[in-house]
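Sample entry (131 residues):
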Amino acid sequence: MSEQKPEIDNDDDFFNLHLNAEESSNKRTAVRYIRTDIVVSVDLKGIFNFNRSIDATLLDISSKGAAIKCEKKLATKKEIDLKLVFDDGKEFIISAKIVHKKNKVYGIKFNRYNDELGDYLMSSEHDLIFK
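Predicted structure, serialized as tokens:
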């Protein structure tokens, strides 16, 4: 049987809210957007990977990283360039690293914060969906 949480009835209850370790473990500090209008590909870096581009599906994205689904097997800790092409033709190529994988879903961390991408994500979004 799951433990029920008390409902928050007013602002004072919200500011007095206490979370357990599991509830407060989310380390994300950037808003993640769910977008279906961005075409994504992964360009592998390295001597033997030149001109190798792999198609992927974008699951969510922020100015700091992204989650993608890819049918090809990718190695974690691998340096990549993530290519993002928006419906209007705007393109970003972002240096990044694959930081985790589960099944065919990969977590991508950008090598630096990308404020230009973050601003563009916000300004080009029509139906805002946050994660």
